[in-house]
Design a protein that fits this description.
Elements lengths: L1 H32 L11 E4 L7 E3 L2 E3 L1 H13 L5 E3 L2 H10 L3 E7 L8 E16 L10 H5 L4 E4 L3 H8 L5 E4 L2 H10 L5 E3 L1 H10 L8 E16 L4 H16 L2 H10 L9 E4 L7 E2 L5 E2 L1 H12 L6 E3 L2 H10 L3 E7 L8 E17 L9 H5 L4 E4 L3 H8 L5 E4 L2 H9 L5 E5 L3 H7 L7 E17 L4 H17 L1 H9 L4
Parallel strand pairs: 1-4, 1-5, 7-8, 11-14, 11-15, 17-18, 17-19
Antiparallel strand pairs: 2-3, 5-10, 6-9, 6-10, 12-13, 15-20, 16-19, 16-20
Helix pairs in contact: 2-8, 10-16
Length: 491
C-alpha cells in the first residue's frame, strides 16, 4: 500500500509537470501564431486623402505614387497593406490623436515638425500661385499677392498655414482642389496656391485643359513625407525610413516618379540646396549649377564617393527647408550667433564683409549704425544673416525681398537709400544686371564673417564629420587653394 501510494504521488507530480509544460508550449505557440495581436508594427493604420497623383482611389483600390510606394514598403516590412481614405481634416486629426496612425502624403512644415514623426521625403513640390489667363495678374513677390484680390485655400493644408504665417488676410476657404479651380475659372477667387501635379489632376477632374490656368509666382518648395503619430515606436519609424531609402537606391521611387509625375527626379537620401549667389553659386548659361561653393561641395562628394543633385532655390526657401527637414545640406551660409545652434557646420570656406551700399552720387552718408537707422528704406534679403542681425538690433526701416537683384534695381532707381550685401557677391550681381561697381558706394561696413557649408540639425553627425574630413583633406593637398584661385584670381 505504501508502494502504491508513493507510485500514485509520483504519477500525479509527473502529470502536473507535463500539464505545466504543455500549457507553456501551447502558450508560446499561441503567441507566435497570433503575433499580429501583440506586435505594434502589425497594427499600423494608414490614412490618406484623394490627392492625385500621389494618393487616390481607382477602381476602389489605392493608387498613386505614395500608395504604390507604401505597398512596396509594407512588403519589405511584412506589414498589412490597407489604406483608409478620409477628408484631409479627418485624417490629419486622426494622425494627431491616435497611436500607430500614419497620414500620407504630408508636407513637413515648421508648424507640423514637432507634432509627428516623419519618414521620407518621397517627393518635392513647388507651390505656385495660379490665375486664370483672362485676369492678366502679374506678381513679383508675396506682397503683390496680398493686394491681388481673393486667394482660395484649403483648410489645414501646409500652404494655407504658410500664408497665414506670412500675414495674408485675403483668404477664401474651399472644400477641395476642384472647388477652388472652379472658383478660380469663374472669377470668384483671383489666385489659388497649388502645385503643378495636383492642379493638372484637378483640372482634368472638372473637364478642363491643364492650360486653363497659369502659374504667376513660385511661392516655395516643400518635401512630402509619411507622418506618424507621436506615439508610434521609434524603431518602426526607423525601419520605415530604411525601406524608403532602399526604394531610392534600388530605383523603385524613380520608377514611380516616372509613372505618376512624368519625371525621373525625386528627393535623394540627402538634399543639397544652394541659392543664386554668384560667384559662390549660380546657374550658368549652359544650365549647370556652378560657382566657388558649388565646386567645393562637388569635390567633397567626389572624395566621399557620394553624389547628390544640387538644387537651386531662393535663399529664404532653402533656409526654411534646412530648418525643417532632416538630412539637408545648404550652402553657403555665414556663421552667426543667431544661427549657431540651428545648424551643423562644415568649414570655414571663406570670409566676406557686409556693407551698407548706397547709390554713387546720392549724397547719402553712413558713418554709424545710428545713421543707418535714420534712413527711410534699407533693402535686405529675407533670411540673410545680415537681415537677421539688423532685425536683432531693432531696425524697423527694412524693405524685404527674396531676390537680391530686385533690391539692387530698387537701389539704383532711387527707391532705396541703401542695400545690405557682401563684397564677395555684389559685384557679380551688378554685372548680371548691366551695371558697373562704380555706380555704388560701400558706405559703411556692417560686419565681417566666415561662411560655411551647413547641414540641418538632425542630420547624422557622422555624415557631417565625413564632409569636414574631406574638406580638411582638400585644404591639405592644395585643391582648396586651386578652387579659390579659379574663382577669385585677384585675391
Amino acid at each position: 500500500m505504501i508502494f502504491v501510494a508513493l507510485t500514485n504521488d509520483l504519477l500525479m507530480k509527473n502529470l502536473q509537470r507535463l500539464l505545466t509544460y504543455l500549457f507553456v508550449v501551447t502558450g508560446v505557440l499561441f503567441q507566435s501564431c497570433d503575433k499580429n495581436d501583440h506586435d505594434p508594427s502589425a497594427k499600423l493604420r494608414f490614412i490618406s486623402e484623394e490627392y492625385k497623383p500621389f494618393n487616390y482611389t481607382e477602381d476602389s483600390k489605392p493608387a498613386g505614387l505614395a500608395a504604390d510606394l507604401l505597398k512596396d514598403i509594407c512588403s519589405q516590412l511584412d506589414l498589412e497593406y490597407r489604406v483608409e481614405f478620409l477628408t484631409w481634416e479627418e485624417g490629419y486629426q486622426a494622425a494627431l490623436d491616435q497611436a500607430n496612425t500614419v497620414l500620407f502624403t504630408t508636407t513637413l512644415t515648421s508648424t507640423r515638425k514637432d507634432k509627428f514623426k516623419w519618414a521620407g521625403p518621397i517627393a518635392s513640390l513647388d507651390w505656385n500661385f495660379y490665375a486664370a489667363p483672362q485676369r492678366s495678374i502679374s506678381l513679383n513677390n508675396l506682397d503683390d499677392a496680398k493686394a491681388a484680390g481673393k486667394i482660395g485655400v484649403i483648410a489645414d493644408y501646409a500652404i494655407e498655414e504658410y500664408l497665414i504665417e506670412e500675414g495674408f488676410t485675403n483668404l477664401v476657404y474651399c472644400a477641395d482642389h476642384m472647388e477652388a479651380l472652379n472658383k478660380l475659372l469663374s472669377g470668384e477667387i483671383d489666385l489659388f496656391p497649388s502645385d503643378r501635379y495636383t492642379t493638372e489632376s484637378g483640372l482634368e477632374s472638372i473637364g478642363r485643359s491643364p492650360y486653363a490656368v497659369n502659374p504667376v509666382l513660385t511661392i516655395k518648395t516643400e518635401l512630402l513625407y509619411f507622418a506618424f503619430n507621436k506615439n508610434t515606436p521609434d524603431e518602426l519609424v526607423s525601419a520605415f525610413q530604411g525601406a524608403i531609402d532602399l526604394c531610392k537606391k534600388n530605383g523603385k521611387l524613380k520608377e514611380l516618379s516616372q509613372i505618376y509625375l512624368n519625371t525621373s527626379s525625386y528627393p535623394d537620401v540627402m538634399q543639397v540646396y544652394t541659392e543664386p549667389y554668384p560667384p559662390l553659386s549660380y546657374q550658368n548659361t549652359e544650365g549647370d549649377i556652378t560657382g566657388y561653393g558649388t565646386d567645393l561641395v562637388k569635390e567633397i562628394m567626389k572624395r566621399n564617393k557620394t553624389h547628390y543633385d544640387i538644387h537651386l532655390s531662393s535663399w529664404r526657401n532653402g533656409y526654411q527647408m534646412a530648418l525643417n527637414n532632416p538630412n539637408f545640406c545648404l550652402f553657403t551660409m555665414d556663421r552667426t550667433a543667431i544661427r549657431e545652434n540651428l545648424f551643423q557646420w562644415v568649414g570655414p570656406i571663406g570670409t566676406n564683409t557686409t556693407w551698407f551700399y548706397t547709390k554713387a552720387g546720392s549724397g547719402i552718408t553712413i558713418n554709424s549704425l545710428a545713421d543707418a537707422r535714420n534712413l527711410q528704406a534699407i533693402g535686405t534679403v529675407n533670411s540673410w544673416f545680415s537681415t537677421q542681425s539688423l532685425q536683432d538690433q531693432g531696425f524697423n526701416n527694412l524693405v524685404y525681398d527674396s531676390d537680391p537683384k530686385v533690391l539692387t534695381e530698387k537701389l539704383l532707381n532711387g527707391q532705396l537709400d541703401a542695400f545690405v550685401c557682401t563684397d564677395i557677391t555684389f559685384p557679380d550681381i551688378l554685372t548680371s544686371l548691366g551695371y558697373d561697381y562704380g555706380e555704388v558706394d560701400p558706405a559703411f561696413a556692417l560686419m565681417s564673417s566666415d561662411f560655411y557649408i551647413t547641414f540641418s540639425a538632425n542630420t547624422s553627425p557622422a555624415v557631417v564629420a565625413s564632409w569636414q574630413a574631406a574638406l580638411n583633406t582638400l585644404k591639405n593637398d592644395g585643391t582648396f587653394d586651386a578652387i579659390r584661385q579659379k574663382w577669385f584670381p585677384n585675391q
